[in-house]
Amino acid sequence: MVQGRPATASAFGWLRVRASLLLVTTLLVVACLVSALAVITASHLTREQYGRLQQLEREQNQLQTEWGQLLLEESAWSSPARIERLAVERLEMRLPDVNEVEVIRP
To answer: Transmembrane stretches, by residue range (predicted)?
Structure first.
């Protein structure tokens, strides 16, 4: 007997403490595993998204290059010298003489 208690009571008390320590330890191990899995998942998703970002940046660069080429082509097709040449060759247009110009007054 320890201080008026039977020996079995102190043994059961020790078992309760030990069981609660085991439960707390188990919960901490489970929490660590869940945290580790969350970190692994977040890292994996980050890597996937970064790969997608790089792919989209490459596509953006390609489209930017194509846009620049289209702007150059548009400026070549719409140059005033080309338009005038086509008007003369295909439509047989010409600048009117001074005598052919009429001024209309309101």
So the answer is: 20-42
